[in-house]
Structure formats: C-alpha cells, structure tokens
C-alpha cells in the first residue's frame, strides 16, 4: 500500500510542464561526459499506467547501471509513517472551510461512488490526498507502475533504490500551493464524475506510448487544472533545478538509472536541458 500511495504522491506532481523546446521522441536518454567514467541513463516514467512493460532498451540500460534512483526512495521502511504525518489539514480546519454545501455534496458523491467511502470520514484530509486516491479510477484497466517494475529489477540485481527527494520534500510542494486552488480542482473532478480527467488521462497514455514527451507536455499544460497551470514553478522548475546536483553526485558515484515522471525532462527548465547546461551530453536512445 505504501508503494502505491507513493506513486499517487508522485503522479500529480510529476506529469506536467511548459513546452520550451522540441526533443526527439524518446523516453530513455543517455547521460555522458563531464567527467563521468561510465554513462548513466534517464528514463521518463508515467507513474500509473495500463502497461508498465520494460522495453529492451530500458532493460539494457538497467543492466548497464548498478543503482536505481527514483524521485523517492520507495524502499524506505518509514515512508508510510512519513506520508501519514502529512495527510491532514491544520488542526481545526476541514473541507467545509473551502467549499460550498453543493460542492461538498458533489465531492461526497464522487468519493462514495468511486471509493466506497463518504467524505464525512475524510473532511480533514488534504485535497491532494483526496484527488490522488482517485487516480486509479481514471484508468480503464488494472493499474500498473514503472516504479514497481524498477523495484523488482533492483531486487533481482541486488541493487539499491535511492531517491532524489524525501517524502517531506514532496509533501512540502503541495503545502506551498494554495488550498483554494487544490479544492477548486477537486470540485471540478466531482462535478462531472471524473469524465474530463479520464479523457485527458487516456490522451496522455496514448501520447506516452508514442514517446513524444513534447506533445505530452503540450497536452498537460491545461488551464482547467489550476494546481498545475498556476504553480508549475513549484511543481517542476524548482525541483528540477534541485535535482541536478543530486543526479551529478549519483552518476559520478556509479553508473545510475534515473527514473523521473514525464514532464520533468523537457523544457527550458527540464532535466535534459539543465544537465546539458551543466556540461553533460544527454542524447536520446532511439533503438
């Protein structure tokens, strides 16, 4: 459960960006140069999907590297405890402070129908956790996760799983985004019973299959999602910049396979461009 919840946490944070440059259609990128003795690899994941099958080029990259670094260390035994510590609103606050009676009823209906759990039991849970609990319902298939596949590989190859961020780091991201905006997105989800989100997610999965990360970002730069469109500096840019020194440290330590959410790679402040600006050669693996 803690791994699935971690994927939820990562999902909303990790799939959006502003398109700033055209990149090759590839979800796998090789990192070389700038003093690296051996190449590392950067993979563009999608955290929840219908098919998390690892392609041959990804398997080769995993074989050529000796550690796996994801956004979070998903092997951390304290992860569930840390997540639960950040799930609730401030003492005395509830969803009723942010939504109207009609909006409350719409959200209650959504959660009851989709999760079998009335809003009454979750009135003091932060909106991000309410929204993320609904993500599997946007798939018309059993949920799969690349992160869980990477964890299987790490176990098979007796390798470490490490993280670019801590759970506290990711929770802080949403603490910096106004609750009013997060609740507005939750209300929108409730008003049409996830229909808009299901359609958008299906388009995203289709584009991801084509490995067109530029088109993916264009699709996801959606003003209907206020949390994303108004706060991309917090969700993406600042985090990407913080990751570069950590990616550098891990890659110089040993050949590393990095897996980060679709949306973090492309753009002016994307990981690919930032690594290139730092002196690395980052090329698409087109096999």
UniProtKB/TrEMBL annotation:
Entry annotated with the keyword Signal: yes
Recorded superkingdom: Bacteria
Presence of the UniProt keyword Signal in the record: yes
PANTHER family: CYTOPLASMIC PROTEIN (PTHR40590:SF1), CYTOPLASMIC PROTEIN-RELATED (PTHR40590)
Organism of derivation: Winogradskyella ouciana
One Pfam match: TraB_PrgY_gumN
Identification of the protein by name: TraB/GumN family protein
Signal peptide: 1-20
Alphabetic keyword roster: Signal
Cross-referenced InterPro entries: TraB/PrgY/GumN_fam, YbaP-like
């Amino acid at each position: 459960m803690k791994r699935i919840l971690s994927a939820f946490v990562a999902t909303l944070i990790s799939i959006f960006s502003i398109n700033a440059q055209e990149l090759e259609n590839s979800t796998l990128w090789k990192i070389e140069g700038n003093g690296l003795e051996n190449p590392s690899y950067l993979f563009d994941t999608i955290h929840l999907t219908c098919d998390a099958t690892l392609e041959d080029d990804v398997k080769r990259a995993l074989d050529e590297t000796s550690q796996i670094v994801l956004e979070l260390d998903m092997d951390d035994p304290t992860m569930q405890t840390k997540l639960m510590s950040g799930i609730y609103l401030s003492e005395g606050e509830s969803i009723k402070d942010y939504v109207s009676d009609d909006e409350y009823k719409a959200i209650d209906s959504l959660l009851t129908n989709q999760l079998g759990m009335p809003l009454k039991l979750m009135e003091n849970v932060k909106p991000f956790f309410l929204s993320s609990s609904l993500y599997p319902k946007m798939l018309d298939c059993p949920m799969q996760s690349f992160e869980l596949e990477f964890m299987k590989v790490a176990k098979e190859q007796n390798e470490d799983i490490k993280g670019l961020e801590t759970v506290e780091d990711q929770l802080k991201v949403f603490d910096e985004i106004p609750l009013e905006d997060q609740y507005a997105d939750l209300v929108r989800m409730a008003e049409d019973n996830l229909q808009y989100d299901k359609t958008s997610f299906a388009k995203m999965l289709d584009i991801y299959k084509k490995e067109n990360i530029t088109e993916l970002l264009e699709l996801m730069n959606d003003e209907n999602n206020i949390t994303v469109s108004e706060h991309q500096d917090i969700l993406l840019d600042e985090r990407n910049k913080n990751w570069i020194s950590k990616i550098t440290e891990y890659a110089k330590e040993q050949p590393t396979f990095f897996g980060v959410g679709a949306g973090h790679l492309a753009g002016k402040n994307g990981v690919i461009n930032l690594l290139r600006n730092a002196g690395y050669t980052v090329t698409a693996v087109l096999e």
